[in-house]
Amino acid sequence: MPDATLAATPARDKVRAVDFRGGGFAPKTRRWVGIAVFIVLIGFVEWGTQAGWISALTLPKPSDVLATFGELYASGLLFQHLGPSLTRLVVGATIGASIGVTTGVLIGLFSYIRAGLVPLVAAIFPIPKIALLPLFVIWFGIDEGSKYALIAFGTFTPTVVATYGAVDNVDRTLIRMGQSFGLSWFSIVRKIVLPGAMPGILSGLRISLAIAIILLVAAEMLGAEYGIGAYILQAGSLYDLERLFAGVVILSILGVIVSAAIGAIERHLLGWRT
Amino acid sequence: MDIRLDGVGHAYGDFEVMRDITLDIPSGRIVCIVGPSGCGKSTLLRFIGGLERPTSGRILQIGDPPPDCLNPLTYVFQDFALLPWRTVTGNVSLALEDHRIGGAEAKAIIDDVLSRTKLTDFAKALPKQLSGGMKQRVAIARALAVRPAVMLMDEPLSALDSQTRELLMDDLIGLWTRTPFTAVYVTHNLAEAVRLGHLIVVLSRRPGQIRQIVEIDKPLAERGYADPDLEDSQKQLWMLMREEARAADAELIDA
Questions:
Q1: How far apart are CA A233 and CA B71, in angstroms?
Q2: Considering only CB atoms, which residues of chain A are within 8 Å of chain B?
Q3: Predicted TM-score of the model (pTM)
Q4: What whole-number distance in Å separates Cα of residue A151 and Cα of residue A229?
C-alpha cells in the first residue's frame, strides 16, 4: 500500500486562509513621526495656554518662548551664551570620552587592568558628579578647569563601561583567525578588536554625550557668567519661565544634534552591519 | 613539508578527550579526519595549527616549508571568519599586510587567488552581500594568498546547504588538481570525506583514538557526484562508525 493512502483524505471541510501571526519586532525608519510628535505636543500646549485652561504659571506659551528665543538671537546674547557652553561641552566630552575609550580598551585587553579598574569604575559610576563640583573647584580652580573636569569625569564612566563591554563582545573566532594568519598582537587590536568594538563604543557615546549635556548645566551653576546653564539658572531663580524654556529648548536641540551626528557617524562607519 | 602527530593526547582535568593519536600527514595529500561528534576532531586541528596545546604528545613539522610560503599552517574555518567591515579584497589583503606585502605585489597575489576562486567580480563586495558559498570561497582565497604548506580545514562546508557544498567540493577538487596542496580536512560528513580525502582517518568516540585509516586510491579528478566506488567506501565507513555515533549521541554532556 503506498504511503499516500495511509493518511486518510479529510472530508470536504470548509476552506479558509491560515491566520497570519508573524511580523513585527523589526523597527523601521519613520522620519516624520518624531517631528509630528513634537508638533502635536507643542500645538496642544499652545492651544491650552491660549484657551486659558493651562494657567500661565504652569507652563509658558510656546509662542512666547519662541519670541524670547528670537530676542535672545537678535540681541546677540544667544551666541555669547552658546559659545562658552559649546567649548566646555566639546573640551570636556572629548577629554572624558577619549580617556574613557582608552581605559575601556585596556580593561578589555588586559586581565590585571580589568581586575584592578572594574571595581573602581563601578565605585565611581553611581556618584552624582554634581556632588563633587566643590572638590573640582578646589582641584582645578573656579573657572574653566573645574567645568571641563566635571564634564570629562561624567562622560568617562559610561564610556568605559560601554567600551569594555564592546571589546568583550568582539567575535573571538575573528581573533583566532587573526592569530592563525600570524598577525601581530598590535595588528589584531587595530584591525580586528577596535573595528569590532566600534558599534558598542558608538552606542555608549550616545549615552555619555547626553550625560555631558546634563552636566554642562551643573558645571555652570558655579561662577559662570555666560553659558546656557548659567542662563537657565538665572531665569529659574527669577521664575522667568519663558527664558527658562528658551534655554531648555537649546539643550534639547543640542541633544538632538549630538544624537543625529552619532547616527551619521554610525551610518558612515558601520555600513558593514547587517 | 610533512606533519607528524606523535602520541597526542588531551584532557581537561580528569576528563580525557583524546588519547595517543599518532599520524603522518604526507605532503601533497588531503587527509580527512572523521569521527562522531565530540571526539575532538576540531581540537586536534587546533593542535596542528598551534592555536591550542595538547596535554601530552607533540606535533612535529618535518622539513622546511617552501621558501615562498608566508604562513605555513593556514586555517579555513567553518564559520568563514571574515571581517564584516572589510571587502573581499580587504579580507584577503589582511593576511598579507603583516608580511609587509603591499602595492603591486599584493595586488598580483589578490587578483590571482580571486580568479582561482572565481571571485574576481566580487572583489569590492562586503561579506554581508555574499551567500554562504561565496563567503567560504573568500576564506579559501585568503588561505591560498599566504601560500600555505598545509591547509587546515575545520568543517569548511558544514555551514552550507547541500547544493552549495557540491559546488564547493568541485571547486576544491579543481584547485587541488591544478596545484596539489596538503590539507587536513575535518568533517562529520562522510560524503565529503570520500570525495576529497586521499586518506581518511576514523576516530573513535571520546576519548578520541584512531580506529582506522582508510586509503582511497581513486584520483580526485575522477571522483564524481554519486560515484558508485565512493558510495561503497562511504558505506564501509558508516558501518565502522555507526555504533560509535549512536553511543556518542546518547551520551550526557558533563557540564
A1: 65
A2: 173-174, 176-184, 187, 191-192, 195-196, 270-274
A3: 0.82
A4: 13
Closest listed residue to residue B66, CA positions, set B141, B2, B142: B2
Q: Could you tell me if B47 and B53 are in contact, meaning their C-beta atoms sit under 8 angstroms apart?
A: yes
All 3 cell numbers of residue B206?
Answer: 571520546
The CA-CA-CA angle for residues B63, B69, B71, to 5°, reads 95
Please give the ipTM for the structure prediction: 0.86
Smallest CA-to-CA distance from A78 within A257, A255, A247 is with A247
**Which grid coordinates are listed for A17?**
486562509
A173 vs B contacts (CB less than 8 Å): 77, 79, 81
- What is the C-alpha separation between B36 and A200, in angstroms, rounded? 39
Q: How far is A265 from chain B (nearest CA, A)?
A: 14
- List Cβ neighbours of B28 (8 Å cut-off, separation of 6 or more): B180, B181, B182
Count other C-beta atoms under 10 Å from residue B52's C-beta.
Answer: 14
Q: Which among A199, A213, A195 is positioned nearest to A249, based on CA atoms?
A: A213
- For A177, the enclosing helix (H) or strand (E) is helix A172-180
The one-digit pLDDT tens for each residue of chain A (274 residues) are: 567 666 655 667 888 889 889 888 888 878 889 889 989 999 999 999 988 888 878 888 889 889 998 998 899 888 888 999 999 999 999 999 999 999 999 999 999 999 999 999 999 989 988 888 888 889 998 888 899 999 999 999 999 999 999 999 999 999 999 999 999 999 999 999 999 999 999 999 999 999 999 998 888 877 778 889 889 988 888 988 888 989 998 999 999 899 999 999 999 888 888 7
Residue A118 grid coordinates: 572594574
Contacts of A178 in chain B (CB under 8 A): 94
The verdict on a CB contact (< 8 Å) between A183 and B98 is yes
